[in-house]
Amino acid sequence: MNWKDITYLKSGSEIQKQAFKCLNTLQIFDLLAAHSPILTGTIPIGISIDSSDLDIACNYMDADKFEKKIQSLFGEQKEFKIQQKEKNGYWVVIATFNFQNFPIELFGSLFPPTSQNSYRHMLIEHRILQLLGEDFKQQIIHLKQNGLKTEPAFAKLFQLDGDPFQQLLEMDDLTDTEILQQWNRS
């Protein structure tokens, strides 16, 4: 799957098709092309719920310039907010707003989007969903509908101890066979 090209959304679920239309109408991937945007999160992998947002990971070379660009491009959108802060030991720019009934979050850092945790989480979650199938997917969606965030939902089903965000990242080092063995033990 080429996650960098959102055309895969056109042939997906109804929410994925709506997301594709929203993102294209907003022209966000064209406007932010210099920042290597990648849609991450639950909508691309088909485990979104009504409150799910469109998470877009970007990179920047200068946080202040990136913030000003985001402000100028999207500052007029509904409920627009932007901030710079330290997260997990590095500086990030986070902007949120609403467009066509979707909450949108732009997350920028110095790291390429493919190195950011949201992208890495999405890849391992997608891999696990492919390995464990529809029943597992429905269990994740059910947990999310009952208030759990995505990574804690995966951790709960796998009975992982500790920080669910870190535990899920560590599963990326496992082979498919090891993931299946871990699932069978949980």
From TrEMBL:
InterPro entries given in the database record: DUF4269 (IPR025365)
Pfam families cross-referenced by the UniProt entry: DUF4269 (PF14091)
Name of the molecule in the record: Diadenosine tetraphosphate hydrolase
